[in-house]
Inverse folding.
């Protein structure tokens, strides 16, 4: 297994706009590998334009926002490709798809890194930010996971939130809790 990082992928659409979604990525040799599930807009965009950027941000509201209907985060134009990247990125890389390894469920896009830029120093690790990312994963799997497992894991993650969150992490946590509650009520 190789190391997987979580970032915000912005992908160029064929009509010239930018689509935003949290996505995991790994590095394999010279390539950055993206593996979006079928069906998804990210997958369609990577096939259509082959252009995308990965933004690294410590504002985990962007992750939680994308999963709770809040996708309108400020973007800036990329330098080398016709695509946006997160304005709040501490760093970003610009990508061009070099090769696709087809799979009916989860094709792999092997991307060439065209450019890498740093914009602000990495402020350090924060447990509440990690907890928000973990809670995002739970929220993205609400239809697959038993409600009691989701609740147990949220109770555990809440310890890091209570001890180490700032205002942005608390806001993100609130959105995710609302989404879980709405899912429970609809069940
Ligand atoms: C931290 C994190 C990592 C994710 N990684 C992936 C991934 O590697 N592949 C994937 O298909 N979805 C991943 N997702 C879920 C996508 O963000 C989500 O399905 C998104 O809406 C993509 O669909 P769209 O392109 O249609 O918007 C991840 C979500 C989170 C919160």
């Amino acid at each position: 297994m190789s190391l997987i990082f979580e970032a915000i992928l912005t992908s160029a659409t064929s009509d010239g706009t930018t689509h935003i979604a949290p996505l995991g990525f790994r590095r394999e040799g010279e390539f950055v590998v993206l593996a979006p599930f079928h069906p998804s807009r990210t997958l369609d965009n990577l096939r259509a334009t082959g252009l995308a950027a990965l933004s690294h941000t410590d504002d985990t509201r962007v992750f939680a926002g994308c999963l709770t209907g809040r996708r309108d985060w400020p973007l800036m134009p990329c330098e080398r490709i016709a695509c946006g990247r997160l304005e709040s990125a501490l760093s970003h890389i610009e990508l061009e798809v070099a090769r696709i390894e087809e799979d009916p469920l989860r094709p792999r896009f092997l991307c060439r890194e065209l450019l890498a830029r740093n914009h602000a120093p990495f402020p350090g690790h924060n447990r509440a930010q990690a907890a928000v990312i973990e809670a995002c994963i739970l929220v993205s799997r609400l239809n697959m996971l038993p409600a009691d497992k989701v609740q147990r894991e949220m109770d555990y993650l809440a310890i890091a939130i209570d001890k180490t969150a700032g205002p942005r992490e608390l806001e993100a946590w609130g959105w995710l809790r609302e989404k879980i509650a709405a899912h429970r009520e609809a069940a």
About this structure: Residues 6, 21-24, 35-37, 40-42, 63, 67, 133, 136-137, 140 surround flavin mononucleotide (CB under 6 Å). The helical segments are 41-48, 61-67, 127-140, 147-164, 167-186. The chain has two domains: 4-118, 127-186. The mean pLDDT is 97.
